[in-house]
């Protein structure tokens, strides 16, 4: 029985995408076999896919990406399989730009877990004039909205604990409190090998990694609990992959 016989003819577009998702999910993870099955499916349904132009092909590609994202990591092999899928689905980079950004973040998370830490290029504007200590390395830079808030109002987030691992995807269930904040402008949060640097309004502030540091992670940002009040750093990036990178980085550095 061929794929055409298996899935039948005269399918609606939504049904075609759902069947493609079934093909992707059969192996439980992305493998060369998964790619081969999906390619055969695409060839069997080439006319329907071509008729829809981009949307169905992008939905099918995104379903394959979702397999990797659900596992919270992306191996080199899986990245290679996704590149093959993008090619035979005839999707340009600009047609799946957000998805590829998410994949890049997921790859960074995977590298951190395996001990390969990212570094910020010295040419990055956020590092200009940053007073780093000898041997201190800037690992990550994030554009943030800076806010001040008296309390967390019960929305505590995920506490970043000294010497503790980050639980994958745990920050996604938490959102920063949005009411009662005082906007303080924008800035850059730089995660170094020794501390968190906040550069905003021409000023620098830093929090060293110590067991006493009160840091709380959310899907959309970071809360720094002060002796009085809280500094809210809301990520300008809307991808929850940013929180995953921050969580893994802090877990690797705070020990």
Q: Please work out how many helical segments DSSP would assign.
A: 8
* CATH superfamily placement of the largest domain: Pleckstrin-homology domain (PH domain)/Phosphotyrosine-binding domain (PTB)
Give the domain tally.
2
Shape: elongated
Q: Which percent range describes the beta-strand content?
A: 15-25%
* End-to-end separation: 56 Å
User: Could you give the order of strands across the largest sheet?
Assistant: 2-6-7-8-1-3-4-5
Please give the share of residues in helix.
25-40%
Summed up, what is this model?
38% of the residues lie in helices and 20% in strands. It is built from eight helices and eight strands. The N and C termini lie far apart (56 Å).
Strand-helix topology:
Blueprint: H1 3-7, H2 13-25, H3 32-44, H4 46-51, H5 55-71, H6 76-88, H7 97-113, E1 138-149, E2 158-159, E3 182-192, E4 195-200, E5 203-208, E6 215-218, E7 221-225, E8 230-235, H8 241-253
Antiparallel strand pairs: 1-3, 1-8, 2-6, 3-4, 4-5, 6-7, 7-8
Helix pairs in contact: 2-3, 2-5, 3-6, 5-6, 7-8
């Amino acid at each position: 029985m061929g794929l055409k016989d298996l899935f039948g003819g005269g399918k609606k577009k939504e049904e075609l995408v759902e069947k493609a998702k079934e093909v992707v999910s059969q192996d439980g993870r992305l493998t060369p076999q998964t790619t081969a099955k999906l390619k055969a499916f695409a060839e069997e349904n080439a006319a329907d896919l071509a008729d829809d132009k981009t949307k169905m092909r992008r939905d099918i590609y995104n379903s394959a990406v979702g397999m990797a994202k659900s596992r919270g990591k992306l191996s080199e092999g899986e990245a290679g399989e996704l590149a093959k899928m993008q090619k035979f689905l005839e999707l340009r980079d600009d047609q799946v730009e957000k998805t590829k950004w998410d994949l890049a973040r997921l790859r960074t998370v995977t590298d951190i877990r395996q001990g390969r830490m990212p570094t910020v290029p010295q040419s990055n504007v956020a590092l200009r004039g940053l007073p780093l200590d000898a041997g201190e390395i800037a690992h990550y830079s994030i554009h943030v909205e800076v806010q001040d808030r008296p309390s967390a109002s019960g929305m505590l987030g995920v506490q970043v604990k000294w010497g503790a691992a980050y639980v994958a995807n745990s920050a996604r269930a938490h959102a920063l409190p949005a009411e009662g904040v005082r906007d303080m402008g924008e800035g850059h949060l730089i995660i170094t090998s020794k501390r968190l640097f906040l550069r905003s309004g021409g000023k620098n502030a830093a929090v060293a990694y110590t067991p006493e540091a009160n840091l709380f992670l959310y899907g959309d940002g970071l809360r720094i609990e002060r002796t009085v009040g809280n500094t809210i750093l809301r990520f300008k990036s809307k991808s929850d992959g940013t929180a995953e990178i921050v969580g893994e980085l802090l877990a690797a550095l705070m020990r």
